Amino acid sequence: MFALIKREIQDHLVYFIAAPVLSALLIIVTVEAVFSYDSRNPPVVAIGLGVALGAIVTFGICGMGAGQMYLDKTRRISAFLTMLPVSRNKILLARIAAGILAILILLVPLAVAAAFLVRISTPPIPLYSGMVLDISTTTFLLALACYCIGLQTGWNPSVLTPSLGSLGLTCIFVLLVVIKGFGPEINVILVLFIAASLYRTLHNFSFTSL
Amino acid sequence: MNDHVIQVENLVKYYDGRCVLDGIDFAVPRGCIYGLLGRNGAGKTTIIRILLGLEPPTRGRTTLLEADSASLPAKTRGRIGCVAEGHNLIQSYKVSRLIKLCKDLSPQWNDELFNHLIETFRLPADRRVRELSIGMRAQLNLSLAMAIDPELLVLDDPTLGLDTVARRQFLELAIDIIQQQGRTILFCSHILSDVERIADRIGILAAGKLVVDCPLEQLKERVRKLRVIFPDAAPANLYLTEIVNQQIQGREMVVTVANWNKQKQAILETFKPSSCTEIPMSLEDIFIECTRPIAEPLEIA
After folding, report:
1. Can you tell me the distance from the alpha carbon of B120 to that of A92, in angstroms, rounded to the nearest whole number?
2. Has the ipTM of the complex gone over 0.90?
3. Could you tell me the residue ranges of all domains in chain A?
4. How far apart are CA A95 and CA A34, in angstroms?
5. Chain A neighbors of B89, CB-CB under 8 A
6. Could you tell me if A202 lies within 8 Å of chain B, comparing CB atoms?
């Protein structure tokens, strides 16, 4: 299993390099926004940068899932790997594990930085206890949902329609979080979507020709 | 314990409504070298892909080493070596990385044998797989397949695209390994002389059906090509069953008959031919006769 995860990381190294870089940029932007916050003169540039980076991260995670599956399909990687003592389920599990690892590399430093910022600074808006945990959980689930959309898109025989569909679905999820806010309700929706999506990906991957 | 390493039962496969395999049945006993033959598009690769679990069958059941092909456990996969048509190695990897990956994933990796093979073939470890020649890719593929000490070796047109010298070298090595280790082998090839050299049982696919499934010696013994000359014009019908092919020109008839026996000989003699001589047939001749579009479906078993 570790050999398979290692292979996934080496094959998609760009995402594992981009994740800490984006994470660091987001931390810098957040720190800048928090310390320069003024209710009469809000830091528009920092907030704008934060939104742009958030969009890059969201679509990047979706792209990672799609890239992993698309490269497998075009380079016939799984067709080769299944000739070795490896089952299809293991290949997919290793792929998902690598994806989750990339998401964690991106989000864990952000969550730690957010928790630290809440402690050392006076937040511009009133916070409830466990808010950082709620935000982190929802963000992680949102990222995982986007990743799952990518996995399904990448394994699809056609390219254009699924790509547009996945873009639309990603936007819907982001808007859903914006509208509903962070918390258990949105988490339940995201978990259900992730479970259904992973089941479908596993089914497609297990029963199609390699 | 079942002594058949490969079992195929009533295998049917449709592609876009077109029947590629139509009720294939065969079994390969342990230690047997089975040569699966057929023209382009006959379904040889499809059978192998279904056997290896790369393709789902439309109907039927296939087992490898007593495990269902559709859900081969990783442990069983570790007992099967495969050299696929076109050598589906990961093209973007360096040879050394591909070797490392296979080594890490195979619990039964035989380093000594693999190093011996790599040295024999002089494969460059620092080049990418896509930069290797077809011959080198075939050698790398065979080395990787052999390094896991497989009980079953599946070779799907392994010598495709190799020059004569590389093909001979590849086969010699394969034969060496086979003889040393007594493995079961399923061997598909268009080069019939290769199959004739190493196979001890033959299956011939034609029009989606397995028209021949018997030991090579038996096949050569049972399919007869005869030149029969009659005193007058040759009869249009000899009333023999299992005629593979028949050509008439005046008094002369060249007829190929499957499952030749004394009864068929007696029927032929009732036509009182002036002469009847046997034309020797190689496996290639038998293959051509059996896969002619006009041939009636035969069951030589």
Report:
1. 36
2. no
3. 2-207
4. 36
5. 80
6. no
